[in-house]
Structures are given as structure tokens and as C-alpha cells.
């Protein structure tokens, strides 16, 4: 007799764990496959702040009493770790002109948290509910058999199989298993950025409780660098640097800390941690399921849904599986929610790609042009918002409030902006 479980989930990140917790609460027999040995140990460079914009991803988060509450989706997850408010967002030009974004009432744009602790908290809930975990196990292949799904597994050089009525793929952005099950067919691959995240102590003169982006060739030839807060104190920061397979992120590190305008900020600094990752930049899956298989979170997204989006994906995917097992169209219900919840699905995709890159001003604009544009907003505080989709609109619209001045003082720059603006902000 076949040992057939209700649901197998591949990936024990926030999406996979939330799916396991929710499915087990509904009485399903759940097995989670995870290639790491320690689920709560984070070695990948990743986002670890909750965005507090009202309505972000159709949600209004509240954090209190040891819980992250998703008030619109009507669920919560436990969290017992530390929290740090991110109250400001700054964008610096090469010469130090800055654009400031914040809420007028001082409430945070985002809240930094300990992702490892969050995963530990959710995993403990799963274990109480009887979820089976198979760690140090790689799902390297599989087949949809029509009435069930069979997965091929490898653990410590031993191979095995597991069979389930439904499969949730929550493997992350590189979407290898998603490809094996045919869900990547027709999906566009835009590139594979590489990211390094350095945790650095004994820094000085960075604005506390702030997310800071630095633009210009004095820092990086084709992208911004990002400085963010940590949970370790005001003299410790996280430095995020992007690159690609031809120009790796570490290529830029020495220049940033020794030769850039930030060199004095790093004069006595020490690296205490370093994490990295590569991210396959796929177009989003508008239909994230096929047969008995559904791909959720970053596996189905353009780059990242970030942690709060991943948790929502896990919650709704588990409910979808429960509906499917009761012969209702749960995967279609999930797809409808998925396409409505995320900006990269709601926006026409070509416009989204243009918009997403519209604040990544290098190499579109020279350092002198960046200095001029940022100087137009010096001393102002723009309406507080953290969304990576809405912030570029706010910044550009604020810059273009000065379009007559730009046209008069910088006609070449004005022509360049006019051409790029019509592409980037047509959404």
C-alpha cells in the first residue's frame, strides 16, 4: 500500500513554513523538504524588514504582543525577536545632495527584524502541529502522476522518493524545481544579479534608523549601493552591493570603504559577517500552478516578494491546497489573489520593468547630472513610503516639479529626462 501524504512542501523559508503551519492547522498531513541542516540559520543575503506602508501588497501590518498581524488577510505569526524601526529613507548623490523620505508623524516606514528568529518561531508552531521535516534533503526531480506527485530526493548521498496528493514549491527565486515541473515554460529570464551583504561594525556618521542609497560612479559603475540598519546597534550597518557574473560585487568593496566619499565612515570599521546570493530575475508567473503543483513566493515572482509577501503566499497556498483536496478550485482562487496582491502582477509587465529601474539612475545619468537633480530636492522631506514600486514615482514627480528650471539651466539633461521619463513613468 502506498504511503501517500496530503502535501509535500519544498523549501522551509517563510513561504514554505507558513504553508506548512496553515495546512497542518486545517488537518492536513504535511512533509517539508529543506536542503539546509539548520532552517533558522540565514546564510543568504536577503531582505529582513517588514514594509509598514498602509495597503502595501493589499495588507496593513501590525506588530505587537509577540505577533506579526496581517489584519486584512486575518491571520498572525509569532515573533519573539528584536525589532528596529526604519524611520527614514535617504538617496544621496555623489557630492552629498540628499533626497529624504519619511512620514511627517515620525512613524516607521519599515521595521527591521531577525529573520532567523521568525523562521524558528514558525517552525516551532509547525512541529507542535505534527509537521514532518526532512532537512539536509534536496528535491532534485519529480513527476506529476495525475492523481499524485512523486518527488525524487537526495540526502547524504542516499536517494529516495516521496509521494503526495499535492506539491507546493517554495524553493526561492532561482526556481529550479519550478522549471522541472514545467512551470517556467514561456517565462522570460532577464539576468542573474549577484548580491553581497556585509555586516560591518565600528562605522560612524550614518543616519540611524535609516535606509540609505548612494548613487554615482564614485560608488558603483552601474547600480546604487545600500546602507541599512542592523539589530546590533547604531555603529553597525549592513552594506549591500550588487554585481553580476562578469563583475562580482566584492570588486567594488575596497573602493567604497577606502576611496569613496564614505571612506571616513568606514575608517575604523570591521567586517563581522558576509552573506551572498545570486538571483535569477524571471518574469512573474501569472498562472503559478500546473496539475497538482503550485509554485509560490519567490519561486513564482519577479525577483522577490520579500518576507511579508512570502508569508501571505504560504497562507493562501495552504488554503488553496485544502480546497483542491476537497474538489474545489483552490489553485484558481490562489491565482486570483496572487495577481491582485503584488504590484509586479497588477502593472503591465513592460511598464513595470521600466518603472522598477527608474530610480537606478546609473549609468543613465552622469554624476554631475545626479548632483543637479538631487540638489533640487535638498532640504525637503517627501511623503513617507517604502515601496520599491511607488518610491520612484514620488521622487521623479518631485524632481519634475522643477522641469521649467531644468529646461532653462540644463537643456541637455532635460531632453534626456524627457525621453526616459516617458518610458519609465508611463504606468
From TrEMBL:
UniProt xrefs under Pfam families: Pyr_redox_2
Signal peptide: none
Gene Ontology molecular-function annotations: oxidoreductase activity
UniProt-listed InterPro entries: FAD/NAD-bd_sf, FAD/NAD-binding_dom, Geranylgeranyl_reductase
Gene3D superfamilies, sorted: D-Amino Acid Oxidase, subunit A, domain 2, FAD/NAD(P)-binding domain
Domain FAD/NAD(P)-binding: 6-184
SUPFAM superfamilies membership: FAD/NAD(P)-binding domain
Highest taxon of source: Bacteria
Classification via PANTHER family: DIGERANYLGERANYLGLYCEROPHOSPHOLIPID REDUCTASE, GERANYLGERANYL DIPHOSPHATE REDUCTASE
Protein name: NAD(P)/FAD-dependent oxidoreductase
Organism in which the protein naturally occurs: Ruminiclostridium herbifermentans
Amino acid at each position: 500500500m502506498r504511503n501517500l501524504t496530503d502535501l509535500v512542501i519544498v523549501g522551509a523559508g517563510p513561504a514554505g513554513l507558513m504553508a506548512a503551519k496553515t495546512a497542518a492547522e486545517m488537518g492536513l498531513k504535511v512533509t517539508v523538504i529543506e536542503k539546509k541542516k539548520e532552517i533558522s540559520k540565514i546564510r543568504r543575503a536577503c531582505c529582513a524588514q517588514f514594509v509598514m506602508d498602509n495597503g502595501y501588497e493589499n495588507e496593513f501590518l501590525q506588530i505587537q504582543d509577540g505577533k506579526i498581524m496581517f489584519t486584512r488577510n486575518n491571520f498572525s505569526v509569532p515573533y519573539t525577536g528584536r525589532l528596529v524601526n526604519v524611520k527614514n529613507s535617504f538617496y544621496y548623490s555623489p557630492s552629498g545632495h540628499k533626497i529624504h523620505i519619511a512620514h511627517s508623524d515620525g512613524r516607521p516606514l519599515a521595521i527591521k527584524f531577525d529573520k532567523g528568529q521568525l523562521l524558528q518561531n514558525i517552525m516551532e508552531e509547525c512541529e507542535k502541529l505534527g509537521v514532518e521535516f526532512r532537512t539536509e534533503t534536496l528535491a532534485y526531480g519529480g513527476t506529476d502522476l495525475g492523481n499524485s506527485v512523486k518527488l525524487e530526493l537526495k540526502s547524504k548521498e542516499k536517494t529516495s522518493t516521496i509521494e503526495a496528493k499535492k506539491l507546493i514549491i517554495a524553493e526561492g527565486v532561482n526556481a529550479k524545481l519550478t522549471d522541472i515541473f514545467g512551470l517556467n515554460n514561456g517565462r522570460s529570464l532577464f539576468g542573474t544579479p549577484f548580491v553581497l551583504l556585509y555586516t560591518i561594525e565600528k562605522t560612524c556618521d550614518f543616519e540611524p534608523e535609516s535606509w540609505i542609497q548612494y548613487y554615482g560612479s564614485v560608488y558603483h559603475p552601474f547600480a546604487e549601493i545600500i546602507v541599512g540598519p542592523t539589530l546590533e546597534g547604531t555603529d553597525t550597518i549592513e552594506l549591500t552591493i550588487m554585481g553580476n557574473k562578469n563583475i562580482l560585487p566584492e570588486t567594488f568593496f575596497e573602493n567604497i570603504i577606502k576611496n569613496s566619499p564614505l571612506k571616513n565612515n568606514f575608517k575604523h570599521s570591521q567586517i563581522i559577517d558576509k552573506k551572498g546570493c545570486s538571483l535569477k530575475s524571471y518574469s512573474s508567473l501569472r498562472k503559478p500552478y500546473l496539475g497538482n503543483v503550485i509554485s509560490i513566493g519567490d519561486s513564482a515572482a519577479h525577483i522577490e516578494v520579500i518576507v511579508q509577501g512570502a508569508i501571505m503566499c504560504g497562507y493562501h497556498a495552504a488554503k488553496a491546497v485544502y480546497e483542491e483536496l476537497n474538489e474545489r478550485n483552490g489553485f484558481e482562487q490562489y491565482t486570483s489573489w496572487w495577481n491582485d496582491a503584488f504590484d509586479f502582477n497588477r502593472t503591465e509587465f513592460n511598464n513595470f520593468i521600466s518603472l522598477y529601474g527608474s530610480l537606478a539612475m546609473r549609468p543613465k545619468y552622469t554624476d554631475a547630472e545626479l548632483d543637479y537633480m538631487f540638489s533640487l530636492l535638498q532640504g525637503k522631506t517627501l511623503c513617507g513610503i517604502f515601496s520599491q514600486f511607488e518610491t520612484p514615482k514620488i521622487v521623479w514627480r518631485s524632481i519634475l516639479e522643477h522641469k521649467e528650471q531644468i529646461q532653462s539651466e540644463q537643456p541637455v539633461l532635460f531632453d534626456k529626462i524627457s525621453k526616459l521619463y516617458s518610458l519609465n513613468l508611463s504606468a
